[in-house]
Amino acid sequence: MNLLSIGGSDPSAGAGIQSDIKTFSTFDVYGLTIVTAITGQNTSSFGMIEPVSKVILENQLKSIMKDFKIDGIKIGMVYNSQIIKIIYQYLKKLKIPIVVDPVIKSTTGGMLIEKSAIVDFKKFIVPLATIITPNQFEAEILTKTKINSKNTPEKIAKMIQKMGAKNVVITGIKSKNQEIKDFVLEKNKKYFLSNKKISKINRGSGNIHSAAALYAIVKNKNIKEVLEFAKKITLNSIKNSQKIGRGIVITNIDEQDFIKNKLQNSINEFTKIKNIFQNIPECQTNFVYSKHKPKSIKEIVGISGRIVKAGKEVIVAGDLEYGGSKHVATALLAVNKKYSKIQSAINLKYKNETILKIKKSKLTTYDYDRNQEPENVKNKGSTIGWGIKNAIRNSKTSPDVIYHKGDMGKEPMIIVFAETPDAIIKKILKII
């Protein structure tokens, strides 16, 4: 996945394109950038802005558009009307998700758009937005209307939607009960997303929210799921803020939180698959996701218990923990050592009909014979590691599936592998 950030450069990396690149990297996607302006700022103060020339902006756009397949675009700081109009001309015919973060003022007080350019921003940039993510202050500037009991968040959001944005989320709306609310207006839906107020002034939360939303919508999630994901990532980044400079803390995405969140979302999807209980083995199921190039199962997240059958339902019995899985994590570790992009795995019940579907689906499949296990392997209890290594020893392509037909007292098993947990779900839907 290639995601493009169009915005200003922040030398402190608390916001701007630098923040977006950090966020994209956390999501393990490739980040591209187009710089609209260079700023001088840090965690304490705002210095100055130097917008890029028409020539260099167009050269950046041409260079990127010519060479890369772009899956989604985030638009942040666009300082003046010239920049706005050029961006519009290059993006107006694209049919990919675009998230607009209407950056108007920095946390340290600097104005990031000329007042005279706001009219053109509304005319040219807002209509490009698949999702637009103004905070309360930015929404009020765009609509020239204060949010209050008469001018509700819904009314303000509808005004922005009439400017051309498909989906509007107004973030950071304060309420009386120590909650912070985001108001969401889709085409035919409206709702609030709420959380307890975190009393921590920070830099970068808006950037992380919009970058996370872009990532999620490119992954083909519905709007509510997109914004729930973005909000969760943002809240965690605020909690994990770091005091790097002498001033305001900078938000920080914890990789471990991201891995757990991503796995949890896929576990939720797994439990909702129709008749999935029929594919839970007697030893039950675990679902795992690892850090990049894990050194041991302690760097692989799994369920401390299992996903278990309860009649025709499945229940997640346990919490997500690093080192929470032994057997499935060991299988993943063995595959990852040869194919480092494979970072997720799940075990399923062995069924002949499932094997037939696997072969028809043209997934890359390997198997091994547990009857051939050396006695020293059986005695040491290192069966899974031996089996997986044996299955892929001469392989030239990473496995989608590895299975075995069992042994005396050993249940046959299917293990599905993929780069990410959501890719696991897609493969499961092909074979069950």
List the helices and strands and how they pair.
Elements: E1 2-9, H1 16-26, E2 30-41, E3 46-51, H2 54-67, E4 72-75, H3 81-91, E5 98-100, H4 118-125, E6 131-132, H5 136-143, H6 153-162, E7 167-174, E8 179-185, E9 190-196, E10 202-203, H7 205-218, H8 223-239, E11 249-250, H9 255-272, E12 287-290, E13 300-303, E14 306-310, E15 313-317, E16 320-322, H10 327-338, E17 344-349, H11 352-360, E18 365-367, H12 375-380, H13 383-392, E19 401-404, E20 413-418, H14 421-431
Parallel strand pairs: 1-2, 1-4, 4-5, 5-6, 6-7, 10-11, 18-19
Antiparallel strand pairs: 2-3, 7-8, 8-9, 12-13, 12-17, 13-16, 14-15, 17-20, 19-20
Look up the CATH topology of the largest domain.
UDP-N-acetylmuramoyl-L-alanine:D-glutamate ligase
Quaternary structure: single chain
Largest beta sheet, briefly? 9 strands, mixed
Q: Averaging pLDDT over every residue, what do you get?
A: 90
Q: What share of the residues lie within helices?
A: 25-40%
Architecture per CATH nomenclature, i.e. the level-2 architecture of the largest domain: 3-Layer(aba) Sandwich
Structural class of the helix and strand makeup? Answer: alpha/beta
Distance between the termini: 27 Å
Instruction: Look at the structure and give the CATH class of the largest domain.
Output: Alpha Beta
Number of H/I helices: 14
Strand order of the largest sheet: 3-2-1-4-5-6-7-8-9
The number of strands is 20
Strand content: 15-25%
CATH superfamily of the largest domain: Ribokinase
Ranges where pLDDT stays below 50 over 5 or more residues in a row are none
Q: What is the molecular shape?
A: elongated
Rg over CA atoms = 25 Å
Number of domains: 2
